Amino acid sequence: MVKAVTAPVTLDTVAIGQSARVRTVHGTDHIRRRLLEMGLCPEVEVEVLRRAPLGDPIELRVRGYLLSVRGDHARQVEMHPPGSA
Amino acid sequence: MITATLSSPPRPDVRAAVRSVALAGNPNSGKTTLFNALTGLHQKVANYPGVTVERKSGRCLLPGESVATEIIDLPGTYSLIASSPDERVTANVLFGRQDQVRLPDAVVVVIDASNLPRSLYLVTQLIDCGRPLVVALNMSDIAARRGLVVDHAALERILGVSVIPMVSHHRRGLADLMRALTCARVPAGVSWPLPQPLLTQMRTLGAALGPDAGAIGGTAHRLLIGDLDGELGNVAMTHAAALAEASRSLAGQGVDAVEADITARYRWIDTVVEQVVVRQPSAERRSLTERVDSLLMHPVLGLVIFTLVMALVFISVFWIAQPLMDGLQDGITRIGAFITAHLADGPLKSLLTDGIIKGVGSVVVFIPQIAILFLFLAILEDSGYLARAAFLMDRILAKVGLHGKSFIPLLSSFACAIPGIMATRTIENRKDRLATILVAPFMSCSARLPVYILLIESCFYPVLPARYQAVGKGLIMLGCYVLGIVAAGGIAWLFRHSLLRREVRSSFILEMPSYKLPQFSEVARQMWVNSSKFLTKAGTVIFAFAVLLWAAMYWPRLPQESAQHVAAQVASLPSAEANVSLDERIADAQQSAQISQSYAGKFGHAIAPALAPIGADWKTGIGLVGAFAAREVFVSTLGIVYGVGDTEERGTGRLSAQLQRDHRENGLKVWSPLAATSILVWFVLAMQCMSTVAVVRRETGGWGWAIAMLVFMNALAYVSCLGIYQIGSRIWGG
């Protein structure tokens, strides 16, 4: 499958039920640190479980537990394209 | 294990005594249950100096010790690089920089077997911290249900410290843990490979900072990964140039210290998990929590269930509490009546019945409601649903600058703002928490309800067309609640765009804990602790104001000749009410004359000019003075002023009739629907409750916000009432 190189995939664009691996976490503030500390580090697999009724926050499964983050936090998390090895 | 030889028998007295132990762990790790199991009822709850973080400590006699060891239950934390006041306290205690807390002799870290990787992250930081450590491996039962078995012996070998498997709510493993604490070891020989550039910079920077500063977990390491708490902030300032140089050099090599450090820890954790977790084919493909969540967090059904749960909580708080409240009120009235019958008239009798007993009464009637509310809060929290409520509500609340976690405190405030404000402690961000505290009193609390009912029944009921009376009454009541909510939203938004503008982004990074059945003992304890806090913190203020108010209404005494004059006047007039005896009417009228010329009455008269523009007179003024003890006192004070006696004993029927009959000199009704609307709006928006102000002072750590709240709420209320009455009276006339 050939895929056009487009804008980086971020966690907030991953569809519900899809999994993807983290490439890196952008930003410089305390939120970035906390996302990393909660286990969202490079190469970890993340599954998007659901969104809250108004589309935000997003619930994730990461490292075997459930974590909720706001959409604008998820935008900081750049992912490998879903389905890529 | 220390092996004893013949030449040196075991001598426990040689070992340093373990005088204090700190319990650390992630939130929801079962830490508090372990703390309760260790300390039993020997607990103390206070605040750490200068912050509103609870300092929970207790005593426990460890085997072989002669003196009980202090056990400190640290606030739950995900990281020792703090992102909230709670986490800061934990880090401060563990690094020995917390005022009035000595560096613990040993640390217990509670880890969740069902959530091992993230638990181990905190363990890696504690290893860096270098205190003697014991690991309590909790929740193995939940892990087993998911097909995860943790080999604790293997984990013990890897970490080099004792790992004690336990199920803390069954007290299993407790004795082992206590034994392990007496010989806790500093973890040694554990390390995770950090990238070479980071190590190099740690050494370079460390050399500039002083001896040992370049080691793993040392000053240079902690500065590079952005830990600026405590003395590190000063070090970073004095060595700003060297630190900037190190960061620049790392960036040049494509290394980000924070990401590299955390990733290195998690890589190591992954290898540890590989070695210690035995995966068994699980009976459940999806965990119970996930199956429950697919229902409770469903976009449609989830919201329906959420609404039902909250409605149930809310209705129960009123329904279950009502009979209890009535019973208490009845009992108090009886005690009052008993004293009335057995004491001679005079200041002492009045102090006892109208001051002390009424004061105690106005505190005690709140208790059933408060206790039930705290019960539900504890159940919601212990079951894991609180996090889901925050998840469901975050988006809506974020629109006005609040947080998902603001929802439950605001809901609680419909019963009473005090438990609501106390419940804001779960909000990490200080400004999110402040904004929630500041708008919580806009929620119509149960003490406003008697006032709403009196005014709606007396002032609107008669003017509504007969067939719409019931609906109209309901709508006005609903309007009061809605007005409070709208005001809260608007004020929160205003604060977030002015004084409470965010310097740092507000975050919502929230673990959704596994559901569990709430434990009775934990829930009961929570309810007890919080209810007694309400009694001591709010109850004393309510009581003090009630007694003060009594004195202001009792003195100065009505002169004898005035009393006789009032009696003669009442006797000369025909009675409007056939069922009230002359003696009673005289007594009521004298009481009314007394209060009118008392200090409280004089104050009411004094503020009358300020009340006229919002449609009220001096009688309402005295009622408002009464409302400072607790809002519902407005009703009974107004009863006395209008000479219909004590509404608590006789109901509000006669007061309603009197309000209808009261006319101004120009022949217009004092309690016209417009004037009543104005006073209703006053009660929705104004801050009159002194116990709330006292609790805000306590929870915000100073008078500043408490006084600001008092001023802005009352200013908002006054201006709103002024607008309503002035515009209204121009359109409809007085």
Describe the biggest sheet of chain B?
7 strands, mixed
Percent helix range of chain A:
10-25%
Biggest interface, chains and residues, is: A-B, 36 and 40 residues
How many separate domains of chain A?
Answer: 1
Question: Which strands sit side by side, in order, in the main sheet of chain B?
Answer: 2-3-4-1-5-6-8
Q: What structural class do helix, strand and pairing data of chain B support?
A: alpha/beta
How many E strands of chain A? 6
Specify the CATH architecture of chain A. Roll
Oligomerization status of the protein chains: heterodimer
Largest sheet of chain A: 6 strands, antiparallel
Average pLDDT reading of chain B? 88
- What is the terminal separation of chain B in angstroms? 88 Å
Low-confidence stretches of chain B: 1-14
- What string gives the helices and strands of chain A in order? EEHEEEHE
**Helical segment tally of chain B?**
33
User: What percentage of amino acids of chain B are in beta strands?
Assistant: 5-15%
CATH class of chain A equals Mainly Beta
By CATH, the topology of chain A is: SH3 type barrels
